[in-house]
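INSTRUCTION: Work out how this chain folds

Fields: amino acid sequence; protein backbone structure tokens

Chain under study, with its fold:
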Amino acid sequence: MKKKYFLLTLFLFFSMGLLACAQESPKNLVLDNFEGEIIGGPQGTIDAGGGNGSSVAVSGDKTNKEAGEQSLKIDYDAVSGGYIWVARGYNLDVKGAAAWLVEPENIKWDSYGAISFYMFGTDSKLRMAFDVKDAGGEMFRFMVTDDFKGWKQIVCPFSQFFPRGDWQPATATVNGLLEFPIKSFQFEPIAVAKGIVNIDEVALEPLN
């Protein structure tokens, strides 16, 4: 009988230890894994386009992916003076781009300190902007350089985003403060550059 009580106590001890470890190790929250149809255009699932001579096309790439069935393939031609956007989220012109796995209002934003994504590098030296649009519609930017090869997780701390100085939406409340919930994110290869970049699994990263 004593042996049974000892084993039961030991089991409860380890169970509580495992529970404590789980509580102390918060997980990330995947916002978008780019599964399903990837279609640009007004009736598509990605709000993508270019202007002033720059152009972009998006598709799902099943041959080069970090997780799941496919990644987001961005085929870009960024010229001097032009601009590109490849966006996903809410309050965008393309309503079908509201395809996050979790809606912004259902996220406990104060539990997270960064947003991340996987990028397939080719050491092309491409400079790419990763923008987020905050609760007031203001755009904030984080810069990435393709100076590596293969898949790499890019972690973008919220504290390192800065307000876009070149352009803000006319309807934005511009105050220089990143306010939650974030409504959308977008990628913009910076001119002058031409090529392909693959992106996969955008997620929120816990504070600790």
Q: What stands out?
A: The longest strand covers residues 193-206.
